[in-house]
Amino acid sequence: MRIVRLTVGTIMFISGIVLTLLPGSILLVVGGLMLLSYDWPRARNWLKFSQKSMSTGARKIDRFLLLRKIR
Fold it and tell me: Contacts for 38-41 with beta carbons within 8 Å, 24 or more apart?
C-alpha cells in the first residue's frame, strides 16, 4: 500500500507542477503532497507551507474585492 501511495502521490504532484498553467492544477499538487506526507516528512512541511500560502492569498483577494466593492 505504501508503494502505491508514494507512486500515485508522486504522479499527482509532478502532473500538477507540469500543468501549472491550467486552472485546478493546484489541486493535483496539494493532493500529491497530501499522499506523500503520510510517508515523507519533508512533503508534510511543503503541504503546510502551501496551505498557509493559499490561505493568505485567499484573505488578500477577499480584502481586495471587499474594498473594491465599497468604492
Answer: 38/5, 39/2, 39/5, 39/6, 40/6
Name which of 44, 11, 12 is nearest 25 in CA terms: 12
Q: Cell numbers of 10, please?
A: 508522486
Q: Where are the alpha helices (DSSP H) in 1-71?
A: 2-18, 25-37, 41-70
For residue range 19-63, list pLDDT tens digits in order: 888 787 888 889 999 999 998 889 999 999 999 999 999 999 999
Extract long-range pairs of 1-5: CB within 8 Å, 24+ residues apart.
Answer: 2/39, 5/35, 5/36, 5/38, 5/39
